[in-house]
Design brief:
heterodimer, A: alpha/beta, Rossmann fold, 4 domains, six-stranded mixed β-sheet, 18 helices, globular, B: 2 strands
């Protein structure tokens, strides 16, 4: 009884002994979490540690196998998010759930429209209520503007308004800063602190330690599916927190004792790529860069500033309006994609599910993908199944892909193992140039270290790498040169020895457009 | 065959077998409701399996179904749903009857010539849908349905206007048809007037289908494009090209569907020749899980049901129950496939995770 009384007095949210298993995977095991009202409470942990599973439990998106959820002292069972919303819990998803061509008001009230006595939507009432919420948040939007006119940070603010409009007092933010540049992160925390001052409670999921330490009141650390520590910024520092997260020493991306050679392997000369919509501005505008043998050239930038189009243009998947691409001294501007690949171009795609893998197909078909012209694996028009399977096993062994065999379909692997398989496939053909887009996104620390090792090793053997990454530490640690992309152009060239994440951030927003040094 | 592979085969066939059982049960209920005895009905139906004549008829009816199912299945492998096999077949039927009937060649050459004409016309018709898909992003389901209507009308009209024998005053027969094909274009029977040799062609097509889809580079790229066009594109496989080519192959096969009826049976074009055989291929492909072996047995089942259904009338049971049964089989197979796939996916995932745990 006394425990319950304590909970009622002390905590906005209390989770006790939550366990959640998925087929073959224990996603959460004996998780305990106590969040005080009126605080920003961070949940930190690595990718795949079980943070999102936990938050889905709290938001009613699935039910835990064991354990209890207590909100404001009342023990509850959430059958669906509707139940969680009724209990005052709101979730701001990592990927925004907004309809682009509706107005801000329409997006906010969608599904909760106030109606007049005549059955019409009462926009006046909606405006009044949203106006009040906006002043609480300290933001000011033209409510009749379409969401498509907003930037990423503003859209996130709209998401928060949407959640508040539904009466949430406990907000869950799932990796809210993943899509933001450093300046927008600062603005976000200003907003969150105002909210907390008004009595709301914020649960903040992140794996970025600096912002957690700087802005949160309390911290719960999750590792391998279970809560391992409860601490606060006063009691710990970056190093301590990181070691709690990883449960040991941290992998280090750095290793700069490289010898960049003279021969230029990839040269992109002043290319333009048209935007997708008719009449829209160029997706790539006069982009030039060089990757030499043994060199890693990093591309920094907020997603959607032309990195994707740059890779597609180098691969020949989108036509260039102007300019040329050459590889190893040969102009390949008009060479079909397949021939570029056969000539030694490899690609670790941005999204392994969309562009990298055949999820329903066995691993041996996945490692074969894109290598159908490999003489060892095919003879004439026919595929050589045995050779392909043996090759697949070799890739699996070399890159430490954890799987029972090469016959398993790709969907059965964890994200980190899927990524290792993709990286392994792209490295298996001994490429000259590798386009690596987010090579370690969403993988665990072990896989991250293994992938970094492979990249460094191949680079030392003369591979030229174009590295696109949102992980600024990865960029600074691995790159020999960092180029910043903004709005389809390369706006700065930085020396990673001098660059800091904060500095990259200012370039990435386009506030500073340093001359290329 | 190793254990894993055997398991995969069992799981794959399980849903089709289950679908057939479900259909049998539902039809039994329907028979009961209408006051017929399902036991008698089924024993009459399946009792016919002992008769050579019925078995010959089964193979005969299964022949075009194997070909049309292969036409549909190659589309499915590329994530294309070619509903237009019926129309492609119909266009090919008339053109082959007319063009094939207008030339004189030695027998094997004449037959080969007719095949080429049929395949070319079928591919031409499906190529329209392929072209619309590639150039204008028109959904192939819509365009092939529309092209079916156009094919039926255009063929009926041009047959009526130009190619009917009685219009040319050469025939007073009540049978409205085109001029007979020369004997050199007749496809020989295996068993005189009971089983046509096109069965061999159908089986060869299924074998070639298997080799093409599972053993060649092209087949791999086709399946990769169907499974994830984004991934295939990133490796330089042009998805538009794959769409167009698979549409052409599908249409070429569709062109051959009616040849058992035209070259092996009637030897002239008439309205309702080979009717519905293009549509029925969709059902056979679904039940056969787009695999040549599955298609072979599914075609035999549908062929058998069609052949044996006549017997039911002798027992005063409407033979339409067989049509209902095939309809339910198709619906059930689609639903059960999905359920079995989800169950199997979870099973595989669990096992993979467990084995990885055990290793580490």
């Amino acid at each position: 009884m006394s425990e319950q009384a304590q909970a009622r007095g002390d905590f906005a949210v209390e989770l006790r002994g939550i366990t959640k298993t998925f087929p073959g995977v224990i996603a959460n095991h004996d998780v305990n979490l106590s969040v005080r009202p009126g605080t920003i409470h961070a949940i930190v942990g690595e990718n795949g540690a079980g943070k999102s599973t936990l938050m889905k439990t709290l938001y009613g998106m699935h039910q835990p196998d064991e354990g209890s959820i207590t909100v404001d002292g009342v023990t509850r069972t959430f059958r669906s998010p509707t139940d969680a919303i009724a209990a005052g819990i709101g979730m701001v998803h990592q990927h925004f759930m907004l309809a682009d061509n509706l107005t801000i008001t329409e997006n906010i009230i969608l599904g909760n429209e106030p109606v007049t006595s005549r059955g019409r939507i009462d926009f006046a009432a909606a405006h009044a209520r949203i106006g009040a919420l906006m002043s609480t948040l300290g933001v000011d939007f033209d409510l009749d503007a379409p969401v498509s006119s907003l930037g990423v940070g503003q859209r996130q603010r709209v998401e928060i308004l949407k959640v508040l409009y539904r009466g949430a007092r406990i907000l869950i933010l799932d990796e809210p800063t993943a899509v933001l540049v450093p300046q927008e992160v600062i603005e976000l925390f200003v907003t969150l602190k105002r909210l907390v001052a008004e009595g709301a409670t914020v649960i903040f999921i992140s794996h970025k330690l600096d912002e957690v330490l700087a802005n949160c009141d309390e911290i719960t650390v999750i590792r391998q599916g279970t809560t391992v520590a409860h601490t606060s910024p006063r009691e710990t520092d970056r190093r301590g927190l990181a070691e709690l997260m990883v449960g040991g020493d941290l992998p280090d991306p750095s290793g700069r004792d490289t010898h960049v050679r003279d021969s230029v392997l990839l040269e992109v000369a002043a290319i333009d790529v048209a935007g997708t919509a008719v009449g829209s501005k160029l997706a790539l505008d006069q982009v030039s860069l060089r990757v030499r043998s043994g060199e890693i050239v990093g591309i920094a930038g907020v997603e959607g500033n032309g990195q994707f189009e740059l890779c597609e243009a180098i691969l020949g998947l989108v036509p260039t309006v102007r300019g040329s691409v050459s590889m190893d001294g040969r102009d390949i501007s008009h060479t079909p994609t397949r021939e570029r690949i056969n000539a030694g171009l490899s690609y670790i795609p941005f999204d392994r599910h969309r562009e990298g893998l055949l999820l329903d197909a066995p691993l041996w078909e996945n490692t074969f993908l894109g290598r159908e012209d490999n003489r060892r694996l095919t003879s004439g028009l026919f595929t050589r199944r045995r050779a392909i399977e043996a090759d697949s096993r070799a890739i699996i062994d070399r890159f430490g892909v954890r799987t029972p065999s090469e016959q398993v379909p790709a969907f059965a692997l964890s994200g980190g193992n899927q990524q290792k398989l993709v990286v392994g496939r792209e490295m298996a053909s001994d490429p000259k140039v590798l386009l690596a887009a987010h090579p370690t996104r969403g993988v665990d620390v072990g896989a991250q270290a293994a992938i970094w090792d492979e990249l460094r090793h191949a680079r030392d053997n003369g591979l030229g790498v174009l590295l696109v990454s949102a992980d600024l530490e990865e960029l600074i640690g691995l790159s020999d040169t960092i180029l910043v992309m903004y709005d389809g152009r390369i706006t700065a060239q930085l020396d990673p020895a001098e660059a800091t994440p904060e500095m990259l951030g200012t370039y990435m927003t386009g506030e500073v457009q340093g001359a290329r040094s | 065959m190793n254990r894993q592979k055997l398991q995969r085969v069992l799981v794959t066939s399980a849903s089709s077998v289950l679908a057939i059982i479900v259909a049998l049960v539902i039809c039994a209920v329907i028979l009961l409701i209408t006051g017929k005895d399902p036991v008698k009905a089924y024993s009459t139906l399946f009792g016919a399996a002992g008769e050579t004549k019925v078995l010959q008829g089964m193979f005969n009816r299964a022949t075009p179904l194997m070909i049309s199912a292969a036409a549909v299945a190659i589309g499915f492998k590329m994530n294309l749903f070619n509903i237009g096999v019926e129309g492609q077949m119909r266009v090919a039927l008339l053109s082959t009857a007319v063009i094939g009937g207008a030339v004189n060649l030695p027998a094997p050459l004449h037959i080969a010539f007719c095949f080429v004409v049929a395949m070319a016309t079928g591919a031409l018709w499906s190529g329209i849908a392929g072209w619309l898909k590639v150039k204008r992003n028109v959904n192939e389901v819509i365009s092939t349905i529309m092209l079916n209507f156009i094919a039926l009308s255009v063929v009926a009209w041009s047959f009526d206007t130009f190619f009917r024998l009685d219009k040319e005053g050469e025939s007073t027969s009540l049978l409205v048809k085109t001029k007979d094909l020369p004997r050199s274009a007749w496809f020989p029977d295996l068993v005189d007037r009971r089983l046509n040799g096109m069965l061999i062609v159908a089986i060869v097509i299924l074998i070639l289908f298997w080799v093409l889809v599972w053993k060649t580079k092209f087949g791999f790229q086709l399946r990769a494009s169907g499974a994830n066009s984004g991934a295939a594109r990133a490796t330089g496989v042009n998805p538009k090209r794959m769409i167009f080519i698979s549409m052409l192959i599908s249409g070429a096969l569709a062109g051959l569907v009616g040849m058992r009826a035209l070259m092996g049976d009637v030897h002239a074009y008439q309205n309702n020749l080979a009717e519905q055989q293009g549509f029925n291929g969709i059902a056979v492909a679904l039940l056969g899980r787009n695999h040549p072996v599955g298609i072979f047995f599914s075609a035999l089942l549908f062929g058998f049901l069609g052949e044996a259904s006549g017997r039911l009338q002798l027992e005063d049971i409407p033979k339409e129950i067989v049509t209902i049964m095939t309809g339910i089989i198709v619906l059930a197979v689609v639903i059960i496939n999905e359920a079995v796939k989800r169950w199997d996916d979870r099973r595989i995932q669990r096992r993979a995770a467990a084995m990885v745990e055990a290793v580490s």
